[in-house]
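A student in our group prepared the protein record below, which I am reviewing. What it holds is a sequence and that sequence's fold in token form. My question to you is simply how this chain folds and whether the tokens agree. Do not assume that whoever made the record got everything right. I have pasted the whole thing underneath without changing anything:
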Amino acid sequence: MPPEPPSLSLMLGMMRLHERPELQAPERLADWIEARLDQGLEWFDHADIYGGEGLNEHLFGKALHRRPSLARRVRVVTKAGIRMNRGDIKHYDSSPDWLTGAIDRALSRLGTERLDVFLIHRPDPLMEAETTARVLDDAVRDGKIAALGVSNFLPDQWRRLQSALSSPLRHHQLQLSLNHSSPLFDGHFDALRQDGLSPMAWSPLGGGALFEGQAGRLLENIAAHHGVSPAGVALAWLRRLPGSPMPVIGTLDPTRITTLHDEAWLSLSRQEWYALLEAARGHEMA
């Protein structure tokens, strides 16, 4: 395996934090965070809807407040722009008032003065790029956000926003995995690379579906050959792409995290990579 660049192997998704009662106490969660940091895993992925109304950000912030030394070591990504209020229809909101409040609420819940990365969670057809950009530029200028990005945007959607921004968009979080490889063939992945956006891949293990059928059997065979887990091979497949997309993993289990962290740097051959792609797509390359 090649040497591991610091802090770039995996991002830890906090989407299910509220489902883990053993991590609800601030001291216990602080222990968990510190253990991940000691492994070299410093990126934590949040969103204001995770847990409902910012609950998971709040839990994370309470742990950092309990152990302030951790706050200087963590790197926090959070997202806003999806509204799921009780009694309201689910919708997207990139309006200035909502985004301004969302940024401030995230800072307050997380107990930090700056977000390392802030992403607009979904493209909003009602977005006025100029007014949305003004809010984001102001937050960067005021030191509330270190870097900007988007999530689930198409190229023309992020380019429309970028055209109104003074600050660069630096990150894009998209669905990308062995069983969701369409961004590699529809121009999406090439566009983000061309525009200098760093890719973050959500659902990098396909929700477990990629371990079934022909692709699952081939993953098992390649994993056995290399002495790793099928999940490790799936992450290595993703990391083999140009730019080495950062997988956002959903597990909070320490043993599982350690396994994935240790195995994501497996070096797959070009033939192995394409064999897996063929098995997942169900047909040969044209």
User: Anything to note?
Assistant: The radius of gyration is 19 Å. Residues 3 and 265 are 8 Å apart (CA to CA).
